Amino acid sequence: MPKKTTIVPTRVQAWTLSPEASFGSAVRAKGILLEIRARLPVAVRKSLDVEGMILTLALPEEQEDDFVRTSSAVSTALIGIEELQVIPREIQDILGMTASERHRWLADGRLQSAGTRTVRLAGRARQITFHVFDPKVVEDLLDRGAVDEWRVEDAEAKAEKRAKAAYQAKLTRMSKKSKRSKKSGSGTEDSASGLRGWEDFDLDGLLR
Description:
alpha+beta; 8 helices
């Protein structure tokens, strides 16, 4: 006979992340989950999960006290979560940019950093430091389509740079050609002036 499956009664609570907090990004939602989990006791962290834009806490009914405490902690952590700084992988997903674009726009000042953050990788001694971003700045960039504008600017700058390089190459070729022509002309004069008896020939007036 098939074994009976024991269903453990659970208590569940859910919270829907606002568009202001998540920017509609699943990556950002995952980041918020990890941020809130880090504030919870280790024993109950995995009881909180996210699907889409909904955070869900599920614990067995016999852990009533844990459920109440954790539920309260999650609700408290979500207060002001819209102001949580945006990390690199989140801003890339929200704005639809690549890592190389993020680095380039950070370097030239178009993408403004709100500072840096240092974390220790899970299970490793090594730490990593990365830029973080103000969510209000990210919202503004998203609303005005800044990434599309920057890509157009980059394409125009690249085309201008290519045109300058081509023009410089043309000038270089012309300069080399001119030098060769002058060298060839001076060689003819030198050989003529080096002819034997040339001065006498000139004195006889045969060149007048």
